[in-house]
Amino acid sequence: MLIAGIVLTLKGQPPTEQLTSFVDPFIGTEGAGDVFPGASLPFGMVKLGPDCSDKSSNSGYVPGGVIHGFSHVHVSGTGGGPKYGNILVMPFTGPFQPGEIQSQPSNEQASPGYFAVDLTNYDIKAEMTVSRRVGFHRYTFGNTNERGILVDAGSMLGEHHCCGEAQQLIGSEIKVVSDTLIQGYTRVRGGWNKGGEYTVFFSAVFDTPAKSFGTWKGDTDSPEKASEYDSGEKTGAWFFFGNGSKKAIQVKVGISFISCGKALANLRQEVPGWDFDKVHQDAVQTWNKVLNTIHVEGASDDMKKVFYTAMYHAMLMPVDRTGENPKWHSDEPYYDDFYAIWDTFRATNPLLTLIQPNRERDIVRSLIDIYRYEGYMPDSRSGNQTGRTQGGSNCDMVVADAFLKGLKGIDYQTGYEAMIEDAEIPPGGNQQTDGRGGINEYIKLGYVPAEYEPKGKSPTLHTPKLYDRAGTRTVEYSANDWAIAQVAKGLGKKADYEKYRKRASNWPNLWRRQVNDSGVSGFIWPKRRDGSWVEDFSTTKAGSWGNFFYEADAWEYSFYVPQDAQALIDSCGGAETFVKRLDTFFTGPNYRVDNEPSFFTPCLYTYAGYQYKSSDRIREIIQKHYTSARDGIPGNDDSGSMSAWLVFNTVGFYPNAGQDVYLITAPHFHRAVLDLGDGKQLEVIASNLSEKNRYIQSATLNGKPLNRAWFRHSEIADGGKLRFVMGPKPSDFGKENLPPSLSDME
Amino acid sequence: MLIAGIVLTLKGQPPTEQLTSFVDPFIGTEGAGDVFPGASLPFGMVKLGPDCSDKSSNSGYVPGGVIHGFSHVHVSGTGGGPKYGNILVMPFTGPFQPGEIQSQPSNEQASPGYFAVDLTNYDIKAEMTVSRRVGFHRYTFGNTNERGILVDAGSMLGEHHCCGEAQQLIGSEIKVVSDTLIQGYTRVRGGWNKGGEYTVFFSAVFDTPAKSFGTWKGDTDSPEKASEYDSGEKTGAWFFFGNGSKKAIQVKVGISFISCGKALANLRQEVPGWDFDKVHQDAVQTWNKVLNTIHVEGASDDMKKVFYTAMYHAMLMPVDRTGENPKWHSDEPYYDDFYAIWDTFRATNPLLTLIQPNRERDIVRSLIDIYRYEGYMPDSRSGNQTGRTQGGSNCDMVVADAFLKGLKGIDYQTGYEAMIEDAEIPPGGNQQTDGRGGINEYIKLGYVPAEYEPKGKSPTLHTPKLYDRAGTRTVEYSANDWAIAQVAKGLGKKADYEKYRKRASNWPNLWRRQVNDSGVSGFIWPKRRDGSWVEDFSTTKAGSWGNFFYEADAWEYSFYVPQDAQALIDSCGGAETFVKRLDTFFTGPNYRVDNEPSFFTPCLYTYAGYQYKSSDRIREIIQKHYTSARDGIPGNDDSGSMSAWLVFNTVGFYPNAGQDVYLITAPHFHRAVLDLGDGKQLEVIASNLSEKNRYIQSATLNGKPLNRAWFRHSEIADGGKLRFVMGPKPSDFGKENLPPSLSDME
C-alpha cells in the first residue's frame, strides 16, 4: 500500500523521499524502550494501538501479548505508572462473553500512521489509521460467525500499579445513539504524574448499521439497553452486525477532551468519508513531510532505519491538544504530555527548534500559557495536570533555548516572568510539583542542603525522605540560573543578568574536592545546612525522588555543569586530568547511556580541546546501543529523548541546550540537508567520510574556514553549508578556540 | 396552596407546624444581604431563581430588575465576584429575537421551594420548584401568541466583574435530542474564588412536544439545527410550541456536575412524573422537617418570621453534591460552596451540630475527604475548587467543634492529620489558597511579621501587598492552635497538646500595650521581623486580602481571642477596664454587626462576669439590625452566617466555636424545643419572660441549679431542660464560675 521511492522534487531542494519506509515503529518495543508502536500523527492527540496482557505496559503494547482491544490515547517511551489507554474498541465474533473477549495476535504490522494485526481467536484482521484526533478502524472478518464490536469506556492502563501511581476510574458513561453511533466518555485520575481528573470523550461512528446492541455497567450486561449513565462505574456497549460477509466493518472514533459533541465535530472535520486508505495515505504524507526535514545521503538502509525511526520517535510527544483544553479558553496553542521536560529539553526541544521551528514555537507558547493560568510552567504534565518535577525547573532551559535562537512569535516577557517565578517563589506544599523545591535554602545557602525534606501530604508527593534530590536540584538550579541570566541580558535586564549569572556558579558549593574514586577526585556531594559534609554517602549512590540524586549517581551529576564546562575542568584539575576522568567514566560502570544527565557528557571532551574524543565516544555509544532491532533503543525512549540525541549526533553536532551553541560531534552521513523552514537549508557535508575516515581534519562554514569545534545558532539560522574534510586520524581540529563557558565571559 | 397550621403531632413531641409559612425568602434581598430568594431544598444543589438586570448580582436576583431567565445554580448571601448562574431557561412569546428576550417582573412570590413571577412583557406566569438536583418550571401563557422557551447554556453571572473575579466561559454545548429533550452543558472558570473550570451539565425535558426548534452559537442563530458542539463559545436552543392555549408548559431540568446522562438520571430518579404541585409539596415538607428542629413558643408572628427565615437561610449552604464530584470517586459525602468556612465556623456549623448532627457529620467528612485528595482542607471552595483563605485555617475549628461535641461517624485521625498539615506545612506558592500563609514565620517568631508578603503569580492570588493579613492570621492561627491542642488531648497525643496549647498563646506577641484610642489601651498591632512596631498604622484601619487585617480593624480583632478571654481581660487591665472597653466598642463606630470577627464579642462580657451585659448587647443588636423587612439582614448574609448567629442568640445561648462550650445569652422565647436527633430534645424555658423581664435571675439544668452562665455540650448532648427565671433587673447570675479560658486550665 505504501508508495515506494521518490514522490516529489521541489526546485533546488532535495527530493521528498518516501522516508516512512525507513521507519519501524517496533524499534524500542522490546527491551526497555517502552515505545508506542500504534498509529499516530506527529504530536498526534490520538494514538491508536493495542492494549495487551494485563494492561500494565506503559505503551499498552506487549510483544506477543494477548490483545484486549485497541484504545485511543497513549504515551510513548515512558516509565512509572502507566497513563491513559482510554476508549477501547475490540472486534469479536459472537456470542458476547463479558470479560472474555481477547485474542492472541499474529502478523503484527506497524508503520507511520498504521497498525495491523490478525486476531487469531476470531479470525479477524484488524487495521487502524488515524488523523490528529480520530482513530479509524477497519475490521475484516474471516469467517461467517456473528460479527461483534465492543466499545469499552471503562478500560485503562495501569490500574494495579504500585506507589500511588495507579490510574483510578472516577466514572464513565455510554450511549447507543443510533445503530451507527455510540458516544460516551471515561473520567480517570492518577497515573505516573499522580494527576487529577481527566476526561476522554468519544463519538464512534460505524459504517455498518448494527442489528442488535447492548450496554454494560460494572458486572451487569443489558442487551437492548441503549445507555448507561455515570454512577462511578465502568460502562461499555456492544454492537452485533449479523453473520459475516467479506466486507470489512469500519469504525471511526472521534476523540475529544472537551465533549462528545466536540469528538463528533473532530471526526466530521478530519475524516468526513469512509476511505480508510485515503486517511492512511494522508497520515503517511504528513509523516513524510516532517521526516523529510532531514535528508541524509550515504548511509546504509539499516542506518537510515535507525535514523528515521529515531526522528519518528522524537515527534510522537508532547501531544498537540490545541482546541482540546477543558481548563481554560485562550487563543494560545495547548500541548500536553510533557513526560518530562527534564528528558526533552536536552535534545528534543532543540531539535524541533531547528527543523520544526513553528512546532517548537507553539510548544513554548503553550508552556507559557500554562504559567499564565496555573502559576508555574510544568516540568512534567499529563492529563491536563502538572506532575512532579524531576530536578530543576527545566522549562527555563526551553524558553532560553528558543529565545537565544531567535524563535519568533513568543511572548518572552511573560516567559521571563515565568522563569523568575521558578527562580524565586517557593512552591511550598507542592515542592515536588511546581517550580523549585528548596528554593529558599538554595538562595540563602547557595545549595539545597542535605537535610532538605519537603513536607506535606499533597497527593502528588512521594513520602518525603531526607535529601529529596538536593544534589540534582543544586546542579540543575545552577544551570537553570544561567538560562535565566542569558534571557535577562537579551531583554536588557542588566541587574538580573548579574544576579543569575552569579547564582549559576552555585554548583561548586556542593563540590567536595576530597572524595576519591578510581583515581578521580572531586564529586558533587551532600552538604548539611551548617556546611559540614555528609559522610555516609558514596559516588555510586543513585536514586529517585526521595534521594540526593535523581536517576543517576555522583559520577554522572559531577559532570553536569553545561553552563560552565571550563570551571568544571578547573575543579577537576585541568584539561588532562579532566579527559582522564571522562575516559574512566565512559569505560567504567557509572556511565549509563539511557540516562539524561549524561546526554551532554560526551561533548565535554570538546571543552577540553579533544573534539575527536567526543566524536569517538559518540560513535562508540551509537554502535553499541542503537540498532534497528526491536530492542534497539537503550532504555526508556523517554518521549523520544534517546532518539533526538541520536538524530543530532549522527548529523554531526549536538546542542548545549539553553544556549545558542552547538558542539561539532562529527557526521555519520556523507551529506545531510536540514530544512530550517522558510526555504532555509543547512547542509552538512563530510568529504571522504568512511568507517576509517571518521576524524574531522578541517571544516568550513559557508566557505570560510571554521577553526573551532562549535558554532552558534545565529551562524546557521538563515541556512548555510557546513563542510568537513574527514581523515583516518585525529587532527588538531578543535584544539583551539574552545566552546564558550560562563566563566570565560564578561 | 400551602397547608396552614398544624400538620402532625408525634407522641410527646412538639407538633410539626407548617413553619414554612413563617419563612420569607425575600428577607435579605434588599440592602446588603445578597440572599437568594429562589427555590431550593435545604443544602440543595439546584437553586432555581431569576437572573436579573446586568447579571452582576451575587444571587442573580435584583429587586424589580428586568428578568433574563431562570438559572439553576446559585449561592446565597455572598460578596465578591458572582459565581454560577448556569443553565438559564426563559419562556417568551414569538418571534425569537436573540439577545432581546427579557421581561419586567410583577407579582413576585417566594416561599421555601417555590418561586413565581409574572413576566409582564409576555403575559406569562412563571413558577418554579425543585428537588435536590432538579429544577421544575411551570409556564402559563396568558395570550394566544406563539409560545417559546429557550435554554441558554452560555449565560452566567458576573462576567464583567473586576479584580480578576469575573466568571469566564470556557465553552458550552447544546443538543436538541428530541422534540421534548434538550441536553448540554456550560464550562466556566473564575468567579469569587478565582476557581478553575467547573462544568454544569443538564437534561431538560418538556411535557409538550416542540413544533419547531433552533440552536445558536455565538451570534449565529440556526433554526432547525439540532446541535452546537463546544468550540469555546456560548450556545443555546429554543423550542416553539405553536399558538397559545391555557394549558401550562412544564419543563424539568436535571442538573449534574458529572454528565448529561447523570443529569437525566437525576431527573428521572427525583422527579419521575409531571405533578408540579406534588414536587412543590415535597419541598415544603422537607423544609418543614428541618425548620421543626426548633420549635418556639411565645413569640410574635413577626419575630417567628425573622427567626424561621434565619433558620432557612442558615440551611441553604454549603451545597450537598454527594455523587456529583467530577474530581474523584469515593464513598464519602461531597459538599461544595464553602463560602467561606471563615464565616460559617462560628455559628452555622455549631448550629448544625446541634440540630442536624448527621448533616454536620457529612459536611465534616467531605472536608476531610477534600484533604485526602487535595492535600489541604479548604477555607473557601466553590465550583469544585478551593479558593482563598480569609485568615486562619478555620476548618480546624470545624473539626474540633465536631470532635469535642462527640459527633459520631467521622475519621478524626485523618481529620487531625489535616489539622497538622494546616499548622505545619507552608502552602508556598499558594499562600493565599491553602493552609496557613506565613506559617514558617509564625512558628519561628510567634507571629506573622508586618513585612510578610506572599509572593507568586498563582492565578488565585491577589497582587501581593505588604502585611498580607498578618494581624488576622496571627490571632486566628492562635485560636486554631487551641482547636488542635484540644483534639490532640482527646486523641491522647500529649506532646502535641502541650505544643499547640503553647502556640495558642501567640496572639499577645502582637499586643501593643502602648497604643491608646478613646481611652482604651492595648491593641493588636503590626510588628516587624526584628521585633519593632510599625508606626504608620491606626486602630481603625481595616482592609482585605492585601492588608494587615481582613475585613475588620484593630478594635475588632483585638477582641478576637476566643480561646483565652481571661488572658485578654488581663491584657486589657482587668475585668472592669475590659467591660468599659467593650462598652466603648459597642457604642462607638468600630463595632460592625455584619462582621464575623465580632460575632463572639458580645459574649465576652460574660467572661468578665457580666452576663446581663452580653444579653443586653445582643438584644440591642437584634432589635436594631434584624427585621422582617426585605433589608432585614445586616450586611451580607455570608452563606447564612448572620442568620445562624440570630438563631442561637434568640434561643438563648451561643457557641464558642471549636470548644464544647455554650455561653448563655438569655432567651427571646418563652419556650424553645430543639430536636437533637434520635429522639433527644433540649428544652429551653424562660419563665416570666417579657420585654421588661428580660434578665436572668436564676437557672436550672435538668432540675438542678445552674450557677454559671455557660454549659458544656456534653451536659445537653442527650437532651435536657434548661429553665430560666426571668426578671426586670440584672441579677448576680453569671458573676461567679466564669466560663473556661485556656489560661485557667491544666
From TrEMBL, chains A, B:
Q: Give the record's keywords alphabetically.
A: Calcium
Known SUPFAM superfamilies for this protein?
Six-hairpin glycosidases (SSF48208)
Start and end residues of each Glycosyl hydrolase family 92 N-terminal domain = 22-256
So where does this one cross the membrane? none
Cofactor(s) demanded = Ca(2+)
What residue stretches are annotated with the Glycosyl hydrolase family domain?
262-728
Q: How does it assemble?
A: Monomer.
Q: Protein name, please?
A: Alpha-1,2-mannosidase
In which organism is this protein found?
Answer: Prolixibacter denitrificans
